[in-house]
Amino acid sequence: MLARIHSPGRPLVVVTHQVHEQVKELLASRCAVVANDSVESWPREEILDLAQAADALMLFMPDSVDEQFLQRCPRLKIIAAALKGYDNFDVAACTRRGVWFTIAPDLLSAPTAELALGLILGITRNILAGDQLVRSGRFRGWRPILYGSGLQGRTVGIVGMGKLGHRLAHLLSPFEVNIYYADPLQLPLEEERRLSASRMEFDQLLSNSDIVVLLPLTASTRHIINTATLLLMKDSSYLVNVGRGSVVDETAVAQALSAGRLTGYAADVFEMEDWARSDHPRNISPCLLADSAHTLFTPHLGSAVRDVRLQIELSAARNILQVLDGQPPADAVNSPDFVPKQHDHDHQRGKSLPSC
Asked: What rounded mean pLDDT belongs to the chain?
């Protein structure tokens, strides 16, 4: 279902996915709004048909933007993405075409870290398998089955120590685990002490960890977990992915699980979601889906917290309104050369922001 809020003469904002009414009301106070009220994603061509007349877009994880998309949006001033990781969007193309690109940088770390902890506990303590056993009718009281590894005294390796890594390390500390992290930058010693975390080189972290948690996706971390790096891990270890699907080679993970070279894999993200990859799989690896004994999957629940989603959407809406008022947006990740659009000759040149 498509919702239109008619406001002749006002800037047009297109919202591609379902948002809270409060968000639409905020935008509609100053703009004409076309919003997708369905739980289903709009096809790319439908978005483009609407976006050609748009001054602003609010986009989401299922969307993607490239040079060809932007060429068809001559009025566009800002893309406000209601997300944190923006690898499906060509920010450089936005910058070249004078389009601001914003994200929600500080709202997703806590809920995603909570989910990572949930996946760690779920996969290491056989929670899903236990639930299935109880529901099967075969459970007849306590028996020595479904033993897991537990967390106390184990070593957890975190790949990527940004805000999400910090939050996860903080959540793990009461479990009395040993925490190591792999990151190009070493934290200040005081920060390492506060998090009870020590830096290791990536290969060393894989070899020493009982649980490896994967966070960021960059050009250098695509398939950082592959056939070769999986051989460095303990056969008894677990792998948890809450960053991006393409951090791992899912086929290699499935083969490692089948061969007993990896005990478990839990993920909230999948390679098929990474639309920026021209070669991305169209489906989750069937071998992974078939191995329910050693896997635990959730459907991208990292940010699926009601209050958090509302704040993310409101943040994106505020960024849109700032740009339409001729101001730099608070959460920009680029510094476009803000050339006035042909239809808006009185628009003043926006101030540039330092790159984030």
From this structure: 89
